[in-house]
Amino acid sequence: MNFKKYLDDKKNIIDKALDEYLPSEEKSPSIIHKAMRYSVFGGGKRIRPILTLSTAELFGKDSKSVLQAACGIELIHTFSLIHDDLPCIDDDDFRRGKPSNHKVFGEAIAVLAGDALLISGFNLIIKNSEVKEIKNQSILKLIKEISFYIGTENMLGGQVEDISLKDEDITQEDLINLYMKKTAALICISIRAGAILCGANQRQLKALSRYGENMGLAFQIIDDMLDIMQDQRDIGKPTYANKFGLKKSKIECARLINEAKESLEIFGYKAATLKSLADYLLARKR
Ligand code: GRG
After folding, report:
1. How far, in Å, are 20, 68, 78, 92 from residue 16 at the CA level?
2. How many whole angstroms from 80 Cα to the centroid of ligand 1?
3. CB distance 55 to ligand 1 below 6 Å
4. pLDDT of 234 above 80
5. pLDDT bucket at 137, cuts 50 / 70 / 90
6. Could you tell me if the CB of 223 is within 6 A of ligand 1?
7. Distance in Å, CA 84 to ligand 1 centroid
8. What average pLDDT does the chain have?
9. At 95, which helix (H) or strand (E)?
10. 25 touches 234 (CB < 8 A)
């Protein structure tokens, strides 16, 4: 399989679907729809929805049957980025090399655009119940899980810890716990989403969660390394890479990605795509 082509095809399907699902810029109130679209179409890699689609394929399903839920998760991800960049949180003027949402639309609209994306994300996941093969019961389970994975014990809680982070005595264990919540939780639920909607059993869900957690941790450590190597940015808080160095970070990421792939052994050859995705994330340059 040409993996680059696989990723491009999936990304195109997701981009087209998002364009269809989101209100047009002309629709009133135009400013909020413009702000939502600005960040949704601002150059995201679509890693999370691709993970949802590829997991559905692992179960032998047509990935289109989970496309709405996958796009819903991307909207939730985009919401988290807009709020993360706000002056009251990370105060970042740029995202993906372009002015952040609040720099273009102002703080009030950026807050509301984030809120609107979170609401639209859940709405899209619920709409996935209109697909014939998807059981209402699975949609309910997914909504229950997503609200947990992005809530105060996970993504939101991780963000709370992140803003109160002090360099002095943070341990490796503290950082890993924080990354597990802030970043790995949403990656993990993106994978579980595909599995839940396709009727996975507990053993399969457990294996996929281990894959997601390990990948999510590696993903955040790589993000830290890219900040140092590409942007030469001092983000002003402790990260795995600036605390333990690039060499140790690289070794740790390779170990995590290896563990992620090993968790998929129960799926045999069917897990080839998810394994390639893990290798792709390890090698990513942005
Ligand atoms: C859930 C209510 C609620 C609040 C969210 C703001 C916030 C609280 C959480 C933010 C968490 C955050 C920004 C984590 C960083 C994760 C990360 C590495 C993002 C970058 O992901 P990529 O590289 O982004 O996949 P692209 O640009 O490809 O879309």
Report:
1. 6, 12, 16, 28
2. 5
3. no
4. no
5. very high
6. yes
7. 7
8. 96
9. strand 94-95
10. no
